[in-house]
Structure formats: structure tokens, C-alpha cells
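Why do we bother with holo predictions? Because pocket geometry can differ from the apo form. Keep that in mind while you read this record for 2-acetamido-2-deoxy-beta-D-glucopyranose.
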Amino acid sequence: MEFSILLLLGLLASCAHGSSSDRQDDYRPLTFKGQRYSCKCYNGDRCWPSKKSWDALNKTVNGNLQAVVPRGNVCYEKFGTQSTYNADQCTKATEDLTVGVKVVTDPIAPFWPFYSNNTCDPLPNVSNKTCTLGYLPEYVILAKTVAHIQAGVKFSAKKNLRLVIRNTGHDFMSRSTGFGALAINTHDFDSISFTTKYKGPGAWRGGAVTMGAGVMIKDVYNQAYAQTPKVVVVGGECPTVGMAGGYIQGGGHGPLSGIHGLAADNALEFQVVTAEGNHVTANAKKNPDLFWALAGGGPATFGVVTRVTMKTHSEIPSVGMILNITSQQTNYWKGISIFNSMTPNFVDAGMYVWYAFTATGQFNIQPFVAPNLSRAQFDAVINPFLNALRSNNITFTHDIQEHATFYTLYQAMFAKANDRGMSQTLMGGRLFTRDDIKTSNDAIVSAFKAILENPDGGRKVIGGHVVNPGHGVPNVNNGVSPLWRNVASHNLVIVPAPFENTWEGRKELEGNVTNVYGKLLRDAAPKSGSYVNEGDVNEVDWQHAFWGSNYPRLLRIKEKWDPKRVFYARSTPGTEGWAEINDGRLCRKR
Ligand SMILES: Cc1cc2nc3c(=O)[nH]c(=O)nc-3n(C[C@H](O)[C@H](O)[C@H](O)COP(=O)(O)OP(=O)(O)OC[C@H]3O[C@@H](n4cnc5c(N)ncnc54)[C@H](O)[C@@H]3O)c2cc1C
Ligand SMILES: *[C@@H]1O[C@H](CO)[C@@H](O)[C@H](O)[C@H]1NC(C)=O
Ligand SMILES: *[C@@H]1O[C@H](CO)[C@@H](O)[C@H](O)[C@H]1NC(C)=O
Ligand SMILES: *[C@@H]1O[C@H](CO)[C@@H](O)[C@H](O)[C@H]1NC(C)=O
Ligand SMILES: *[C@@H]1O[C@H](CO)[C@@H](O)[C@H](O)[C@H]1NC(C)=O
Ligand SMILES: *[C@@H]1O[C@H](CO)[C@@H](O)[C@H](O)[C@H]1NC(C)=O
Ligand SMILES: *[C@@H]1O[C@H](CO)[C@@H](O)[C@H](O)[C@H]1NC(C)=O
Ligand SMILES: *[C@@H]1O[C@H](CO)[C@@H](O)[C@H](O)[C@H]1NC(C)=O
Ligand SMILES: *[C@@H]1O[C@H](CO)[C@@H](O)[C@H](O)[C@H]1NC(C)=O
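The structure, written out:
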């Protein structure tokens, strides 16, 4: 589903009903279902900042503070006390939000409206309903300078507000939105600069690129290609995902990861605003613990990154392939099984593969990417796969492309297909190692089949990335789960959700992602893990699933740099004992 860029049109409704004087409470006590909690401050609480305080913050950030207005409001009769319905603007909103880059440039619109509680989706049939904020923040600072970010961090720490960092809004796992919060939007930090010889601490003397917090993958890919000589950077598939935010802080895989590792493996330095509001450098020499944690240890956990410096590498020729198998044939599942069983062969050649299939549509592998392989080397890896399909009478269509550079392959095979906008789905998934595939392929494929066949009426999709960063970079010292050194298949379960749902319906759907689909995958390969950025946000034993043996150190670093928990994102280091309870309030168990 889609939404649009909502022009604010003077609709900045006054959502702040703060009391006239601010009261500084250390915590807000609350009892819910017999459990005692200490909560952050929310609109309506006595500790919520007064209008005067918000105005003062607005001055500090040069007028860049906005009261959040959900872009879907023009489809509804009312938002707050304002009449908002406008048929033309609603149509435009609904159309615009199919486009990824238009979601990104909205101050706060999420890609996955399920996590805004679906209270203001731009739909054609809601004109007699009232739009509410749901789980969107109350205010957002459209930060232009480091000082604006520092002001936002200090204000939320002092006033005990929930703080949300919003870069592009892509996060599948609800982590760039939050009920009642103050958000800091980093999208305008768009500087990019290259050097051919990095001179900072550490051994690396190759090229590097320094990017502001808001830089998107497409921007750095374009500029890298314009350098002399041309270079490449490890980035993801989607043109509008950010580099410095959740992507690199959660690890960050991409089509070049099979030869150059994860984005986090390529990090050389971060600039970061800490929980105390200081702007510090983190690299191999300065604050090395923070540097270690920011490289893969979890988004919105250790600070607000304002800039990141990453390695660049030489451009390389690349081969790509698209292959489709329709489900209208007896051996459809056999084809899926053959593919899955051969994922270790693909990653051992440094390849990256995106695939997706449904129970009754087609198995679409689009694309296979073989960076720096010649056509002959590519054929040597792929022919055994094609021959196995043929000898099982599986019919398929395919198309092979040879590109002189990775950049032209990316433009031809990824860029357009990946600029999708809002989608009403939930995410689950699993990281299967080469060993998992070798020992448990049949069990894993049976789990896929059981997931797609679970009777719930929804058209679920199983997809994934076949990639092993450990092939390119076998040894690293960073926060990324050690499991990533031996991955064959990073699998995703994409579950559609109805727009209209009761609270119980929402919980049942989330429960199925974790306890039915997730359980099937965990049981099929008990040693598998999960990816922080593309997995189930309610993952069971998420500490271990996302970070493995690195977790205890990440927790110590969180405790050191953010003892008061100014930063919070679900299922990230140091959030044990915290819960989003009742109507979305973020609270800590007492
Ligand atoms: C279409 C699509 C394609 C994708 N492709 C890939 C892929 O190829 N490879 C891959 O690894 N992942 C991929 N992802 C997942 C992606 O890595 C995550 O969604 C990631 O969280 C996006 O980060 P963001 O900063 O762009 O997004 P946001 O949603 O804005 O932020 C994500 C998280 O990072 C935090 N954050 C943002 N900026 C900062 C900052 N400056 N400092 C601290 N915390 C910050 C946010 O608070 C939030 O918790 C894809 C996602 C989508 C939707
Ligand atoms: C912040 O100030 C700007 C410029 O004066 C104004 O347009 C905006 O509405 C203010 N924000 C809030 C939340 O009052
Ligand atoms: C809104 O309209 C729908 C039909 O479009 C109807 O079913 C529903 O009862 C209406 N709700 C209200 C509150 O009028
Ligand atoms: C979230 O949605 C549920 C209905 O699914 C509703 O009962 C609840 O009040 C909503 N909460 C907020 C904050 O929007
Ligand atoms: C690409 O392959 C060539 C020749 O096989 C090799 O010399 C070069 O180091 C490779 N480059 C990368 C980045 O792997
Ligand atoms: C493939 O089809 C041929 C001819 O119809 C048949 O002899 C053979 O047994 C089939 N093989 C498989 C694996 O189904
Ligand atoms: C494979 O399927 C996709 C999606 O339907 C389509 O865009 C593409 O053209 C197909 N390619 C081949 C080679 O069959
Ligand atoms: C959850 O899964 C059960 C069976 O495992 C199914 O009966 C039910 O319809 C599913 N519910 C949802 C909301 O997906
Ligand atoms: C409105 O349309 C959406 C999407 O088509 C649908 O899911 C929802 O149930 C509809 N709601 C009403 C009130 O008809």
C-alpha cells in the first residue's frame, strides 16, 4: 500500500497539551497487569514538557522542530480537532507513498505502517474516520547541524522522553518510530567525500569515503562511479536505504559482501553524539570500544551517528543472472530444494543472490550477482545448478548479463525494482550457515513449505539473500554476530497483515511470526541465528540470535555509554527489562 508526501499546509495541529510548568521526575511510576514500572514521560503526564519548553527547544534547533502530522490525515474526516479530508490530496498521498524515495523524504512516515498501529493509513475508504498518531512520535527535529542533534538528545534525556532516531524509515522492525516520542530526523546530513588514501588509525591505506548520517546508498554508488579511478563501496540493494544509520549499525550486507564483507566490516571511523550530548570520534584508536560496538552492535543503541567513514575498493566486472521457475509443475518444490542445497556453492564463489517464492506463483531468483567473476568462472558454478534442474524435468527461464562494472549491473538489475514504498507486512527470518544447509537442507525446505501452507488466508512470501561475508573477510573484530562469517542463506519470511485489525488480531499475527513460522525455522536448524536488520523483532533469545558470543561485550559497552537508557530500539543491547506496555508507553520493570 502507499501513501504520499504530505505537504504540511498549515496543519501543524497543536498536539502538545503540556502542563504549564515542567516537573522533573526521575521516572513515572505505573502498574500494569500487576507489574510495577517506571516509564518515560508522555503527553498528558505532568512531567510532559510545557509549550514554553517546546518553543525553547524549537529556538535552539533554529525552528526545525515540527509537531508530527501523519501524511495520511487528508484521507480522514479529522486529525485532532482539525477537519482534514480532501479527496484529491488523499489520492495523491495514496499514490505517492508507493514510491520509496517519497517515504524517505517525509519527516516521519514509516515503510511498515503496521508499526504505527495503522491509525492513519492513506486508504480510499476511511473518510468517515479520525486519524490519530498511533505509535508515531509527537515531535520531530529535522536536524541540519550536529548542534540540533545534541539539543534533541539532551532535551529527551533531561525531560525523560522517549527518543527515536529516524533516517530513511526503512527499518522492518519498528525501530524508527515510537509512541509519544521526540524524533530526530537525520535525512539532511547528505555530505559525501572521497579520498584515495586513508590516513587515519589502523592498517588501511586504500581509499575511503566519508558520509553524513543521511546519505542513501544510491547517492554514494553514483558518486563512487564518478571518481577517477572508479571505486565501489559495500552498500545494500535498495537505492534509498541509508548507509550510516540502521544499515551499518546492524551489519549491512550487499551484492559485494561475498568479496568485501559486510558494511560494518568496512567501517573505519564514526562521529557520534553520545547519550550525554557530546560529539565524539570513534575509530581504532579513539574510543575503540564504541567503534567496535557501532560496527554491527545494533541501531539507535550507542549514540546518534553523524558521519561514517568506510573503505572503498576498485571497480570490478560482474556477471548477473535472472532465473524463474513457475509453480505450475510437479517438481516445483524440488527446484526450491535444489537451489537451497546449492547455496554453499554460490557463496564459496563470492556470489550474492536474492530470491523470493510463493506457494502458487513462481520462484523468482533475481538476480544472481557474481562480482569479479569471468563468464567462464560463472558458468562453472552455475551449470551444475542448471543441470540439476534439467535432470529433474524442472522447466525454467533465465537470462545472463555480463557487465563491465558492478555499477552498471546494479543499475540494470537492482535500482528500479527496489524503490518500493509502504507495505503492510511483517518480517521474520533466519540466518542459515553453510553447515546448516549441508546437514539440514530437507528440514529447512520442509519448514518453508509448512510456513507457506499455514492456513491463515494471507499470501506469504519466502525470500532471502544468499551471501557469505566471511568468504570475503574471514576475520574481523567488531560487534557483528560471528555467525556471519559462515552464512550461506539469510532467509526472510514476509507476512501480509490486514489494514483493519483488532488488537487481538494484531497480536495473533505477530505471535504466528515468532511462534509458528519462527519456530519452524529454528527447529529445522537449531544452530542458526537471525539478522538484526531483517528478522523478527520479537525473536526468541534475540541476544544470542542477533549477536551470538559478542552480546556480553555489547551489553557492557551499552552500560558504559548509555547507563540511563536515553537510546532505545526494540531487541537491541541493554533493553532487557524494558517493555512497550499499555498503550505504547515505554517503561522499565521495577
Ligand atoms: C527495501 C529494503 C531493502 C533492504 N536491503 C537491505 C540490504 O540489501 N542489506 C541489508 O543489510 N539490509 C537491507 N535492508 C534493511 C536495512 O538495513 C534496515 O531497514 C535498516 O535499519 C535501514 O536503516 P536506515 O537508517 O536507512 O533506516 P531507519 O528506519 O531510518 O533507521 C533504522 C534504525 O537505525 C536507527 N538509526 C538511524 N539513523 C541512525 C543514526 N544516525 N545513528 C544511530 N541510529 C540510527 C533508527 O533509530 C532505527 O533504529 C533493506 C530494507 C528495505 C526496506
Ligand atoms: C518551530 O518554529 C518554526 C519556525 O518559527 C515554526 O514554523 C514551527 O511551527 C515551530 N514548531 C513548533 C512545534 O511549534
Ligand atoms: C463508515 O463508512 C463505512 C462504509 O464505507 C461504514 O461501514 C461505517 O459504518 C461508517 N462508520 C461511521 C462511523 O460512520
Ligand atoms: C492501537 O490499535 C489498537 C487497535 O488495534 C487500539 O485499541 C489502540 O488504542 C491503539 N493505540 C494507539 C496508541 O494508537
Ligand atoms: C578480481 O580478480 C582479479 C583477477 O582474477 C584479481 O587479481 C583481483 O584481486 C580481484 N579483485 C577483487 C577485488 O577481488
Ligand atoms: C523426466 O522426464 C523423463 C521423460 O518424460 C522421464 O523419463 C524421467 O523419469 C523424468 N525424471 C524425473 C526426475 O522426473
Ligand atoms: C522472471 O520473472 C520476473 C518477475 O515476474 C520478470 O520480471 C522477469 O522478466 C522474468 N525473467 C525471466 C528471464 O524469466
Ligand atoms: C496463526 O496460525 C494458526 C495455525 O498455526 C492459524 O490457524 C491462524 O489462522 C493464524 N493466524 C493468523 C492471524 O495468521
Ligand atoms: C478499506 O480498504 C482496505 C484496503 O483495501 C481494507 O483492508 C479495509 O478492510 C477497508 N476498510 C473498510 C472500513 O472497509
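The two ends are 40 Å apart (CA to CA).
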